[in-house]
Amino acid sequence: MSFYSAPAVGDGKVLIVREGTEAVHLTAYDAMTGEGVWNYELSPTYKHYLSPVIVDDAVYMAQGPFERDGEVVTHCTVIRLDLATGEEVWTRTLDEPAASHAAYANDMLFVTRIHMYDGRTYISALDADTGNVVWSENIASEAYDMSCPVIIDGNVYVAVGANNAEYSYITRIICYDAETGDHIWATTQDDSYHVGWHVFAAGGDFMIPTVMSEETTFTAYDAATGDVTWSHTFGDVIEGTSSTDDTIVCTWTSNPFAGTEDYDMHIGLFDIATRRFVETYTESMPGSDYWVSSWMPALAGDSIVVCLGAKLMCYN
User: Fold this and answer.
1) Which pTM value belongs to this model?
2) Is residue 287 in a domain?
3) What are the Cα distances from residue 308, in Å, to 146, 180, 225, 291, 293?
4) Which pLDDT score, from 0 to 100, does residue 152 have?
5) Is there a domain that residue 193 lies in?
6) Which site from 5, 8, 105, 107 is most exposed, i.e. has the minimal number of CB atoms within 10 Å?
7) What is the extent of the structural domain holding 256?
8) What are phi and psi of 25, to 5 degrees?
9) SS3 257
10) What does the mean pLDDT of the chain come to?
11) No. of H helices and E strands in the chain?
């Protein structure tokens, strides 16, 4: 068994995408005991492992692309499940596969999508109760990767990575009105690499970790204007981030492709005010046959839930 998403925590449960013997499931575990509570079958050959979102008594998740009867299905399926039972409440199909995890705010669900062949990217807002599309916007073309949406003070933000005409990698950040989809501002960050999914809000800013070589740079953008407010570079490749108002929780491993070799797993608490780690924790992990890169950690009160390959762990 191996886990294929970041965990989500709510109502005494930990939800995560896992590989079974014949299919891939979204599985709910009891947060105190680790015992399985329910399973929801996704696709037998699920291709894009996106994390669930828990809001009150509901679970939301975007899927795709995946294979069905030997053919690649290139659309996005968004689902809502009952958190207590795992029963399906509604499903909605959109063109183009999901690009990242969904995000929720003010009874709306935000989903980003990317075309598999030409890199066209989109963001859509769905009514969280019904699954009906409220608005949808074309973001960019020829994109390489795309972030999850982030909502701050009534606006939704998304980052798109692409190559320009000179084949220099750039990141474009776009801000929309979350209720209407109206374009507010956009800015470009040159010479960055690999946006990934791990954008987030912290301290009122929109944060983007970008990776170049063996370093990770956090860049903070003013949510109202798009101006850069600060940046900080680490000497490691940060693989997962979650945040509170004043702290960024980071996870990374000494060797994400360790295979059967032993490796170290690190958790760091980065203080936004002082721009430094105020606490770090390192645990030596035995070798595994699985890819051991860490996903985004989930925060639940004073606990941090971390997924590494086939391991799901909770730390205080």
Assistant:
1) 0.86
2) yes
3) 23, 38, 37, 8, 6
4) 92
5) no
6) 107
7) 240-316
8) -125, 150
9) coil
10) 81
11) 0, 31
Residue for token pair 């390192």: 282
Measured over all CA atoms, what is the biggest interatomic distance in the chain, rounded to whole angstroms? 54
182-191, Cβ contacts within 8 angstroms, sequence gap of 24 or more: 183/137, 184/155, 185/225, 185/226, 186/226, 187/221, 187/226, 187/227, 189/219
Compute, in degrees rounded to 10, the torsion defined by CA atoms 26, 31, 33, 38: -30
Domains of the chain: total: 1
Contact in structure between 159 and 146 (CB atoms under 8 Å): yes
What CA–CA distance (Å, rounded) separates 122 from 166?
Answer: 24
Question: Which residues lie below 8 Å from residue 117, measured CB to CB, with a gap of 6+?
Answer: none
Give how far the C-alpha of residue 41 lies from the chain's centroid of Cα atoms, to the nearest Å: 20
How far apart CA 146 and CA 138 sit, in angstroms, is 13
Q: For residue 186, which of 154, 211, 160 has the smallest C-alpha distance?
A: 160
Which positions ≥6 away from 224 have C-beta within 8 Å?
none
